[in-house]
Amino acid sequence: MTTAAAQLPAPERPVPSYLEHGRGIRSWLFTLDHKRIGVMYLLAIGAALLLGGLFAMVLRLHLWTPEGALVSNDAYNKLFTLHGAVMIFLFIIPGIPAALGNFVVPLQLGARDLAFPRVNLLSFWLYVVGAALFVVTLVAGGIDTGWTLYPPYSLEEARGLGLLVALAAVFVAGFSSILTGLNFIATIHKMRPPGMGWFGLPLFLWALYATGIIQVISTPVLGITAAMGFLDRLFHLGLFMPEYGGDPVLFQHFFWFYSHPAVYIMILPAMGVVSEVVSVFSRKPIFGYRFIALSSIAIAVIGFLVWGHHMFVSGQSRVASLVFSFLTLLVAIPSAIKVFNWLATMYRGAIVLKTPMVYVLTFFAIFGVGGLTGVFLGALATDVPLHDTYFVVAHFHFVMVGAVMTAFLAGLHYWWPKMTGRMYSERTGLVSAALVFVGFNLTFVPQFLAGVAGMPRRYATYAPGLVVHNRLSTVGAFVLALGLGLALAGLLASLRRGRRAPANPWGASSLEWAAPSPPPHDNFATTPRAPRPYDYAGLRFVSEEEGWVREGTP
Amino acid sequence: MSAPSRAPSPDAASAGRSPFLAHHFEDLAAQQDTARLGIWLFLASEVLFFGGLFTAYAVFRGNHPELFRYAHHFLDWRLGALNTVVLIGSSLSAAWAVRLAQLGRRRGLELAILVTIALAATFMVVKYLEYSHKLHHGVGWGTSYRPSAAILASLPDAARALPAPRHLGTFFAIYYLMTGLHGIHVLAGIGLFGWILRRARAGHFGPGYYAPVDAVALYWHLVDLVWIYLFPLFYLI
Prior knowledge:
The complex is a heterodimer.
Chain A: H1 4-7, H2 25-29, H3 34-62, H4 73-108, H5 117-139, H6 161-190, H7 203-235, H8 248-280, H9 289-303, H10 318-330, H11 332-346, H12 355-378, H13 380-386, H14 390-420, H15 426-452, H16 467-497, E1 539-543, E2 547-550
Antiparallel strand pairs in A: 1-2
Helix pairs in contact in A: 3-4, 3-5, 3-16, 4-5, 4-6, 4-7, 4-8, 4-14, 5-6, 6-7, 7-8, 7-9, 8-9, 8-11, 8-14, 9-11, 12-14, 12-15, 14-15, 15-16
Chain B: H1 28-63, H2 65-71, H3 77-103, H4 106-136, H5 149-153, H6 157-160, H7 168-201, H8 211-236
Helix pairs in contact in B: 1-2, 1-7, 1-8, 3-4, 3-8, 4-7, 7-8
């Protein structure tokens, strides 16, 4: 009789899924359903990734020869600026929280929606306006300042209209991010299901909660800075321009007060995805739940106090540099706590090498290197010679692309069956993950070496001795692009040819897997009671078609 | 924190469900509780939004104390003090409006909102007089600071005794940015209270449902609080 649940015929679902709930373009564009907003975010972010990736490929091709193979120096400057700005503001920052988080957060809470569905829709549309303004920037002649937009260079008249549009884009996209964070905090506070206390939350939610704090507190500073820069440029206010009595270093402080915490806006949700995936695919409860949960908060808090390490060579006082250097190294502690707890979770687990897990293993390898090379840059003595070299470029690509993007891909594959109701091809997924791993390392390991050899970042040309580094890097970029293209193709193909996904294909215990795949408009017919987090006891594999079923539930 | 709020099953959604209760909340109390947290988070982001300007103020005051010593004579502390009193009064009437909404006293609520709007409008009128006087006399921001002889002559002796420092436009840039951003918030508040007034007239609010009044009043208190810092920073010290 233990298989009674399995022998019941699958009931015809009485309610249509969220994908069928309402038809026509308007039912998507003005939906208040967090799931549809999540899907729209996913499409928009995918477009941003393609655009930013296209810029990257042109940059890498250009660097095939030391004197530059493809574009003018001026065009090169504009391309790397927009590559950075689009990837950071439009892909990595909203990537995991806005696309995956939007979809998953209410489901993991057994809730019907985020706390403020209208605010959520507003956030999406602000993102779209911000993204459109970046495209306008491109049309309006582009910007060549680097994504950091440092004055006085950036606020000179000669930068033209593009710079003003870019500042407006940053301002608008920033408010989109604030509203997402605000929504997540309120939702996680107030909409937990019965039986779920703070330490019953899936760790993905802890990560998004910590992210939300950073978004709400730090992003407004970027907003006001963009506004000040905008007005300064229009009316010569003299806030950041020395010729009018202003202080350009103040801009740097403001900028990094946001933009350093922003790297934790990127990495914390990635860490949240990793916590989910590593436990599910090791078939073991997460090790050190509370340490992982609280280290997210610790990273968020310490992350506010370290911005000055971007300014070691900006004329900051030596005392300030030392203090910032010390605080920066403190971030290594909660980061390492997470990594060791993940590894301990895998220890003696029954590891299942499905695509999400392979991406997470990639994350471990690359985040390890990215994190440790961050120590070189956080330490004052080693940063000064490495500052503004390709070592920095390689470091932040290791963390932002190698770690965050692979975690994004892990999460995308992990939740894909829930979002679309289809299983992707495991074989395509695994091949793409392997290509991403190889391509990524081939692209960025040579950049570390080129950086140590003294190659400065943001130059359209380089010393002939570095041609091997750069060619390897360019080849790697194409392998990486191939891997990403294959991942995309595999996911898209699953929409037509993929097997129907069961409610719980992975044997995960969190509540989103208790809802049908894809979930109905209201997510849950009745509010579920939360299981203990990462409690796999009672989950039993039935078949590929029916997935995993919890004993005692029909 | 507080008890998590849940959505009931659709069949449990009885005919007694308030029209203002969103589908993903169990009851109005839970919805109201969540809205209040949301507005506090918004206010936190607002504090940081203004915080950038306050920091800029502190940095420029530290770098160029002579600018501030000289330029604050252009500001009339009596108008600033008047506006302070006006705004504190409007905060009182806003708080009153929340209480009257809780008690379900509709006429009183409408009156309190009207008083708040009137006081906010008074603030903006005074602000307009201050701005237009300055701009008329060429006291603009940044490079558009070209003061007329008349306004220089009208400065108190203490100021005229000082050498006019360079980059006075920067002081006025910060002055116009901070008071201007604050003024935009006052205008937004007037709009929000207008919306609340319409809903109050439609009889939406009562002991069970007053979250929008509460939210707008909380926002208004922050707007008031920002001014309470702006007034001494610009007019008095």
